[in-house]
Design goal:
The protein contains 5 helices and no strands. It is mostly helical and 70 residues long. The chain has a single domain, classed as Tetracycline Repressor, domain 2 (Orthogonal Bundle). The radius of gyration is 14 Å and the shape is globular.
Length: 70
């Protein structure tokens, strides 16, 4: 059972993948349009993008840094 879990985990380790990065940027853009700057949070971006907050913090230090990337 452990080997199967590890294999699946390796297959899902997309925290640094381009797909996850693009999902974060799309989520941030959508939230900015919907809620404005004050309504955008790292937690909200992570939830919308389907990633962990840690994934976001691998690339950006703050929501401002994310939004400046857009």
């Amino acid at each position: 059972m452990k080997a199967r879990t590890q294999a699946r985990h390796r297959g899902n380790r997309h925290g640094r993948s381009e797909e996850a990065r693009l999902a974060v940027l799309e989520a941030a853009d959508d939230l900015l349009v919907e809620r404005g700057f004050a309504g955008v949070t790292i937690e909200g971006i992570a939830a919308r993008a389907g990633v962990a907050k840690q994934t976001i913090y691998r690339w950006w230090a703050s929501k401002t840094d994310i939004l400046l990337t857009l």
